[in-house]
Amino acid sequence: MKYFRLIWSNAWRKKIRTFLTVLSVFVAFLLFALLSAIGFAFRGGVDVADAERLIIINKVSLINPLPISYMSRVAATEGVEAVTHASWFGGYYQDPRNQFGQFPVDPQSYFDMYPEFVIPEEQFEAFKRNRTGAVVGKELAESYGWKVGDRIPIQATIWSRIDGSRVWEFDLEGIFSNDDPRSSTAIMLFQYDYFEEAREFGKGTAGWYVLRVAKGADPVQVANAIDLQFANSPSETKTSTEAAFAQSFTKQFGNIALIVTLILGAVFFTLLLVSGNTMSQSVRERISELAVLKTLGFDDRTVLGVVLSESILIMLLGGLLGLGVGWAVVQGLTKQLGAFLPGIFLSPGAIAGGIGMMIGAGILAGIFPALKAMRLSIIDALARA
Amino acid sequence: MRVLQQVLAVTWLNLRNLPQRIGSSVVAVIGVAAVVLVFAAVLSMAKGFERTMISAGSDDTAIIMRDGATSELTSGLSYEQVLIVGDAPGVLKDGDDSVISAELYVVVDVKKKTSNTDANVPFRGIQAGAFDVRKDVRLAAGRMFDAGKNEIIVGRSAQQEFAGLDTGSTIRFGQNEWTIVGMFEAGGSVSESELWTDVRVLQGAYRRGNSFQSVRVKLQSEDSLDILKAALEQDPRIDSDVMTEKEYYSGQAEGLSKFIKIIGYPLTILMSIGAVFGALNSMYSSVSVRGKEIATLRALGFGPSSILISTMVESTLLALIGGLLGGATAYLVFNGFQVSTLNGPSFSQVVFDFAVTGDLLVDGLCAALIIGAFGGLLPAIRAARLPVAQALREL
User: Fold this and answer.
1) Are residues B107 and B211 in the same domain?
2) Containing H/E element for A354?
3) Which residue of A has its CA nearest to B161?
4) What pTM, to 2 d.p., does this model score?
5) β-strand B338-343 against B348-353: which pairing, if any?
6) Which chain A residues contact residue B333 at CB under 8 A?
7) Of B238, B266, B289, which marks where a domain is finished?
């Protein structure tokens, strides 16, 4: 640390060059921050999955429903503590572009299943009492400016009502939130009973089941027991953990992760070249200065440290700034676009990884010039100058 | 003329001693190459996806779905409504029969070859008219499925991308076992991502009664769309959306291609800014290394403009080399690279190839030139303004 001033003034020896290098490092880490946040959204909640929860879907495909009669049979299976169900509604608000998840659910068992959804008690009671009631996540309410008491018309794309209409109106009874910043609450929940009664077709089914494994029970065994129970029936099931379900869904998007990695790779390769070049240039120009340092009694290792620290310092300067701005942009995007781009989040892991990369890149870029500086023989260097 | 001669002379001099500054020049070149590579790679994804989606649609085929349906998956039509569509004016007749195909669209889980994980593969029930309402669809291997049997023909892309779809093999979906009897091509369009079977068989297997999800009709001419639309709108027995197949597929493609572009363009701009810094760095060091040389030239009577222009030329040339390098790499690595992804509206997989097209490469090169010009301008001005006496004294 006592050499900080020396390192600092070395770094700014050529102001424009250092400034430009810091800026390109800044841009690289800004990109890194944004791409990691988007990458997180594509992981689709794998990171927040609850290990105790299992999802049961139709074996043929998620779009095929399951009989509602499975509810009690699943509940009676050994190792199952609680079960609830949900269905895909697939409507939109005002414009087909305003799509978000709407799910007809059984309110009590659903909220019991997802304790992370926090809702004021009186709002929840009102929701349970009102057959045409609905609750929405905070993100969604903020996006559309909805308040409790609003009447919200949802245009259905699949579910016609018995009366032939496809507009479903709901009374907004409550707004729930989720404290985990990694999770999105851009969804709307309403009463399955109302949905079941009013829909024109598909009666007697639910989209999927969610169950909680009892303490001490093995999730894999429970899943197998359920699938076995419904094997060879007209509606066979596929039961998987929440994480596996989220993951299989994410995998459907294909090689997005690979593409993001490729882009990051290209960015970092460039970054390393730019800064490595700057470092070796600046060492080359300073040979006589370094020789003087050595003459003054700086040992080899200190010279190595001074040059290497300079490289790391430049990386950290640009990189932390880039991560900081990236973080602010992600915060802004979540606020503005929560309903349209759910789940973007700059995770602490990504931030730590970014800082690690700054230091790593600093070492890689600085190590060769630093070694050169360390091996410098005073006499040669001074003679050359 | 004298100025031009001077510019040429100085530029030539600059380029000949480029090898002495190879380090920073290579860095600038690679910086620009990376920008063009990333730009072309990301946007070729959007291009390839759009091409796959839009080449599927033609202007003289109309698709009829229930009003308000956002895709075939969410639509529903009864047998009676299909008959109404078949009899409607504007629909092409082949003898007494209308050229139509009433279809059912479901999704089945099939494993992706690359990741060995389940993917939502579209499974379509068709009528015999399916080959007439679509352009460029032809059976490429095996035979057509027999009506009434659990037999499937698969699209070429689906066969390449998903496991267990080879001609002759059998595959199980739920309680039903199906035999794959043939493979069809559809000009690389989205239809090739699908599995096809007899609509009657699919209705039975998925307990859909006698219902359908969409009807495709061949129009008598492109102008017949309005006639058909008007006729169906007036009919109280049917509540439908009528559009050309091309409109339908453009709509289906919109979300994902917009998403890729929303990411791709800002990404390119950000990276370009980074590359401009790289180019600036390289050109500044080029100017500072050549300080004495420039001063000598000036003392010999070369004008400041020739110094300025030659520095700009050097920077632009380096950027151009970078651009070509990046573009060529993108083309070699990404063009034709097959991927499949989940397309939101139809909740099913679309298999497509990255398309590094000519106009993408031209755009990329333009970006490279802009980076080169920005990266060269300030250093060029500094070079031109270099105080001659002072620079010479530094000798």
Assistant:
1) yes
2) helix A348-375
3) A254
4) 0.85
5) antiparallel
6) none
7) B238
Residues 6+ apart with CB under 8 A from B132: B94, B99, B101, B218
pLDDT in tens, A57-88: 998 888 889 999 999 999 999 999 999 999 99
Write b or e for each residue in B53-66: b if 16 or more Cβ atoms lie within 10 A of its Cβ, otherwise e.
bbbbbbebbbbbbb
From the list A166, A259, A270, which residue is nearest B34 (CB)? A270
Residue B158, in any domain of the structure:
yes
- Chain A CB contacts of B277 under 8 Å are 20-21, 23-24, 27, 274
Closest Cα of chain B to A367: distance in Å?
A: 17
Indicate whether B247 belongs to any domain.
Answer: no
- For A20, the closest of B70, B271, B280 (CB atoms) is B280
Tell me whether residues A62 and B341 touch, CB distance under 8 A. no
Domain ranges across chain A: 4-44+254-384, 88-199
Helix (H, G, I), strand (E, B) or coil at A20: helix
Range of the domain at B157: 68-238
Q: Are residues B85 and B230 in the same domain?
A: yes
The alpha-carbon gap from A2 to the nearest alpha carbon of chain B, in Å, equals: 30
Q: Which residue of A has its CA nearest to B329?
A: A266
- Pair A315, A23: CB distance under 8 Å: no
Give how many domains chain B has, as a whole number.
Answer: 2
Question: Does the structure's ipTM exceed the value 0.90?
Answer: no
- In single-letter form, the type of residue at position B169 comes to S
Nearest-angstrom CA–CA distance, B227 and B230 = 5
